Amino acid sequence: MELRHLRYFVAVVEEGSFNRAATLRLHTAQPSLSRQIGDLEDELGVQLLKRSSQGLEPTAAGRAFLDHARLILAQVDAASEAAKRAGKENQASLAVGFLTGFEIDWLPKVLKILRGKLNETDLIVSSKSTPSLIKSLINGELDLAFLRPDPQVTELFFKTVLTEPIMAFLPVGHELACHQFIDPIDLEGQPLIRLSKVHAPAVRSVVDGYLDRVGVHPGPAPEADNMSMVISLTLSARAVTLQPAYIKALLPPSVVCIPLSGEPPMVQLAVAINKTRPHGLAELVFSTLDGQTTH
Questions:
Q1: Is 206 domain-assigned?
Q2: pLDDT digit string (tens) for 127-148?
Q3: Could you tell me if 290 and 219 lie in one domain?
Q4: Which residue, 74, 148, 181, 242, has fewest beta-carbon neighbours within 10 Å?
Q5: 128: helix, coil or strand?
C-alpha cells in the first residue's frame, strides 16, 4: 500500500464518483483510478466502496478506513510542511489557511497587507474545513486562518470580518427556481442537502436553527462533507440546499441562487491567530483587517 492509494480513495469518497475524482482532483485517467482502488481493496481483502442512488459511497469497512486514511494524509502533509519550513530558517514564512472558497476574495487582501514583504516571505496557502483549520492553528501548522468563529476554542483570537446571509441554492428547472424569494413554507417537504455537523458545525447549526424557528420540516436527503459534494448532490437529487452567500462564486451555470424571504439567518467569517504562538506577519494581517475581535 502506498500513499497514493490513500489519496485516491479519499478523493473518490469526497467526490462520490470515479470520474469526478479522476478529472477534478487527481488529473488521471478513470480506468487507472478504478484499477488502483481495486488493487487497494484486494490488498485489504474488503470492499471499500458501493454504488447507491447518490453515487459511490463507502461501505462500513470503507468508512472505518477513511478516518485512518485522512489522519495519515494529514500527518504526512504536516510533516512535509514542517520540513519545508525548517529548511528555510533564514526566510520569514507565513502559513495561511482559508475555509474552502474564501481564498478567492481574501487572499488578495492578505497580499495587499503584505505588499513589500512578499519578496522576503515564504507564503504557504491551503484551504480546509473550519474544524481542520482550527486544529492546524492550535498545533502550529498554520499561523493565520479565515474560518467560522468558535467561542468554545479558547486557544485562539477570533476577529469577525464578514457576516453574510444564508441563501437557497437549487438546480435550474427546479419548481422553485423561478421565485424571486424563497419563503420558508416553500421548503416544507422539499429534499434539503445539508453539510455535516462534523465538517461544518457553524453553518449546520445556523441552518438547523432557522428551520426549527420557522417550523419547517424538509424532506429527507443525504448529507455532504464538503461544498463540492453539496453542489453535486443538489444537482443529482434535484434538491435544495441552504448555504452561505459566498458559494455563488463557486456555482456552475446549472445552479441558481435565490434569497430567503424575511430576515434570513446569518453566518460569520472570522480571521484567527493562536494566542500562544506570536507571529509578526500573522499579527500584522490580523490587526490590519477591520472587524470585531473575540478573546
A1: yes
A2: 999 999 999 999 999 999 999 9
A3: yes
A4: 181
A5: strand
